[in-house]
Design the sequence.
């Protein structure tokens, strides 16, 4: 079977794990993602995952609670480690080999990030879960996704969201909003469309790393994407 993408980086938001809850991790959502990832690994796709931590702690909003920005960002990184452990458990329960890799040193539960080792895991068809962001404050998990995708020579970043692509405006607020099938990096910047934070977006632009924004809640979309179907919006 011919695949359009052989090595992908899947970016998931922490909020996606909440399901219908206000915070935390919904078990059915974990299984939902694990099954989608399993299906593409069975096709032979090498998969890396970066997941946010917003379902547990959001660093940027910590300032309003009196928590210093840098401290809040580290707390957010720890939240992504918790989510990474949850995804790892769900994948292993589904029979998928994984490695959890942390940008912060937490040897009891995760490997430290070593680029060559991470690539070797991918070559051995293990799902690599990158956690703790870049390991630095002031950088989001979007930036971590852009950085790791470039480092591991991924073919594409697949950003799973609740909407089926990038629109001219928020489709939930503006019924006249229309969807882009494809759009350039320059257009996204000039039209101020919210795809990723600017640091991450610029890194993708400089490294010619395409981004596809798609609806992760449809259980078939990830498999259809790696096979080359036109789903979501591609930024290149």
Sequence:
């Amino acid at each position: 079977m011919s695949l359009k993408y052989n090595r992908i980086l899947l970016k998931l938001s922490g909020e996606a794990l909440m399901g219908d809850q206000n915070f935390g991790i919904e078990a059915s959502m974990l299984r939902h993602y694990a099954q989608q990832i399993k299906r593409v690994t069975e096709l032979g796709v090498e998969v890396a995952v970066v997941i946010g931590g917003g379902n547990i702690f959001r660093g940027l909003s910590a300032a309003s609670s009196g928590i210093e920005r840098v401290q809040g960002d580290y707390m957010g990184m720890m939240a992504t480690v918790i989510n990474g452990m949850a995804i790892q458990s769900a994948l292993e329960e589904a029979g998928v080999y994984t490695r959890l890799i942390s940008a912060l040193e937490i040897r009891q539960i995760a490997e430290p990030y070593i680029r060559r080792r991470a690539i070797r895991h991918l070559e051995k068809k293990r799902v690599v879960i990158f956690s703790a962001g870049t390991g630095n404050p002031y950088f989001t998990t979007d930036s971590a996704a852009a950085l790791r995708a470039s480092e591991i020579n991924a073919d594409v970043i697949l950003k799973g969201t609740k909407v089926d692509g990038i629109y001219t405006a928020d489709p939930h607020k503006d019924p006249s909003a229309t969807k882009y099938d494809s759009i350039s990096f320059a257009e996204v910047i000039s039209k101020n469309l919210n795809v990723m934070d600017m640091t991450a977006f610029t890194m993708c632009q400089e490294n010619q790393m395409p981004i596809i924004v798609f609806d992760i809640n449809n259980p078939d979309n990830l498999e259809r994407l790696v096979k080359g179907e036109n789903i979501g919006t591609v930024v290149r």
